[in-house]
Design a protein that fits this description.
The protein has about 220 residues and is of the alpha/beta class. It contains 10 helices and 5 strands.
Length: about 220
């Protein structure tokens, strides 16, 4: 197992080109300051939104991407999907909160790691080294949270009846995004989003968005 010593020569035999896709300049600066101490990781570029991130990834073909999944223009799930369809790359998703539904969808897409923005500098580096060694990375506290969630839900989740697109839209609804915002992020028409919304209500057996919000709260998608 590789040590965390930043001067470890074995770790520095190869350098890994890294792209940061994050809309908060402060977070980007913090990540750059951390990785400056680890010569094995070279920041080749950064993007403040999903569209620029996708374009940079396709053009620069980095080894690792640190991807904020809560971007202002495009769903982070869509950004990950488009990048992974275009190039082979290790993506580590960055988020401000633990969300097992997002984690499930990211894993299905082939995202290699998952970190909360409260992680320590050492954990960020550990995650990057792990995914570059072809080992998935999920923080211990996230894994425990997900395990506890499944243990307290002995029956299969009602969300399993939803398609990936419907689940993605549901998550965005639960995060307070309006139809126009969701449509813009997913490159769909508001009419299509509303149709998906109606299908979600029907499949989950709820009559309106008040009942949907109650169900989302019970399933942990919506914070009280």
């Amino acid at each position: 197992m590789a040590t965390s010593n930043k001067n470890n020569l074995t770790l520095q035999e190869h350098t890994f080109r890294t792209l940061i896709i994050e809309d908060h300049a402060l977070v980007r600066s913090a990540v750059k300051a951390i990785l400056k101490e680890y010569p094995e990781f070279i920041i080749i570029s950064e993007a403040a939104n999903g569209k620029d991130g996708i374009d940079m990834a396709r053009k620069l073909k980095p080894d690792i991407i640190l991807l904020d999944i809560e971007l202002p223009d495009i769903s982070g799930l869509q950004v990950a999907k488009r990048i992974l369809q275009a190039i082979p790359v290790k993506i580590i998703a960055l988020t401000s909160q633990m969300d097992e539904v997002y984690l499930s969808q990211l894993t299905k897409l082939g995202v290699a790691g998952y970190l909360t923005k409260t992680c320590s500098p050492q954990e960020l580096v550990e995650a990057m080294r792990s995914v570059q060694s072809k080992l998935p990375y999920i923080p211990l506290q996230v894994a425990e949270h997900i395990s506890n969630s499944f243990l307290t839900q002995p029956q299969k989740s009602p969300l399993m009846v939803l398609t990936q697109r419907e689940l993605e839209i549901l998550i965005m609804i639960c995060h307070g995004e309006k139809t126009a915002q969701i449509a813009a992020k997913l490159f769909l028409s508001p009419k299509t989003i509303n149709k998906h919304r109606q299908n979600i209500l029907k499949k989950l057996g709820v009559k309106n968005e008040i009942e949907l919000a109650k169900l989302a709260l019970a399933l942990g998608l919506l914070k009280s």
